C-alpha cells in the first residue's frame, strides 16, 4: 500500500514488488470518477513516480463490469455550480489526468467490461492497453451533443489514425474488443479468465528490463508524436547517452557474456 492515506476509498493504490497498481474503485457507478478520486489519482501517481522500486504501473477498474466510465456527473450540481467552481473542478481533474499521462514510467491499462467516453480517454493516456474478451469501447459524445477538445481527438488520431478516429466519433457506437484490436485502440485481447495473469506477465517482462532504456524510449516516442518544430531533439540525444553511460549498460553487457539474466538497478 501507499505510504500516505488517500483522500477517498474509491481510489486504491497498491505496490507489488516492481508493479504499482491503480484501481478505480467506484463499481456502483461503473467506476465513474469523482473529484476526490482525481485528487487521489494525482497523489498515487506522485508516490509511484518517486519510488524507484516501481518500474511499471497498471491501471484498472473494480467490479469486473467497467474500466472507467468518465466523470461522476452526480456531483456536478454541487461541485460545478458556478464558473469558479467549474474552473476549480477542471483544474483538479486535469491534474489527475496529467499525472497519469506525464509519468516517465510505463503504464498499462488493464480493461474488463465497458471502456466508454472518459474511460477511453483514461485508457489511451496509458502506454499499453490489454483487454478481456467481451469488453466494449466507444466515445458517445455525438449522442450527447458534447464538444470534444482538440487534445483528446489528437491523442486518438495518434493512436488509431484519422479514419478510425472519425468512425469512432461519427457513429458514437460501441465497438467490440475484436474491433478495438483491429483499429489499434488496444494492444492485446485475451480471454477474460487470463487477463490478470497475462498483464502480470507483461509487467514482469517490462520490470526485468533496463529502466533507463524503457524511459528513454517513452520520452523519444513522446517527442516523435509532436510537431517537428516542437520536438526536443537535445532531450532525445541526452536520454540515449544516459543509457550508454549507465551502470545498467555495463551490467547488460556483462550478463550477456556470462549467459545469465541481468539485474538492472535503473542507474
List keywords for this structure.
alpha/beta; 2-enoyl-CoA Hydratase, Chain A, domain 1; 2 domains; three-stranded mixed sheet; 9 strands
Topology record:
Blueprint: E1 11-16, E2 19-24, H1 35-50, E3 56-61, H2 76-79, H3 83-102, E4 107-111, E5 114-116, H4 118-124, E6 128-132, E7 136-138, H5 141-144, H6 150-160, H7 162-171, E8 175-176, H8 177-183, E9 188-190, H9 195-207, H10 211-224, H11 233-244, H12 247-257
Parallel strand pairs: 2-3, 3-4, 4-6, 5-7, 6-9
Antiparallel strand pairs: 1-2, 7-8
Helix pairs in contact: 1-3, 6-7, 10-11
Task: Explain what this protein looks like in three dimensions.
It is a single chain. The chain has helices spanning 35-50, 76-79, 83-102, 118-124, 141-144, 150-160, 162-171, 177-183, 195-207, 211-224, 233-244, 247-257, and strands at 11-16, 19-24, 56-61, 107-111, 114-116, 128-132, 136-138, 175-176, 188-190. The chain is built from twelve helices and nine strands. The radius of gyration is 19 Å and the shape is globular. The protein has two domains: 11-206, 2-enoyl-CoA Hydratase, Chain A, domain 1; 210-257. Helix 1 links the parallel strand 2 (19-24) and strand 3 (56-61). The two termini are 25 Å apart.
How many separate structural domains?
2
Instruction: Please describe the biggest sheet, giving its number of strands, its sense, and whether it closes into a barrel.
Output: 6 strands, mixed
Strand runs, count = 9
Structural class category: alpha/beta
CATH class of the largest domain: Alpha Beta
- Unreliable residue runs: none
List the total number of helices.
12
In the CATH hierarchy, the third-tier topology of the largest domain is known as 2-enoyl-CoA Hydratase, Chain A, domain 1
Order of helices and strands: EEHEHHEEHEEHHHEHEHHHH
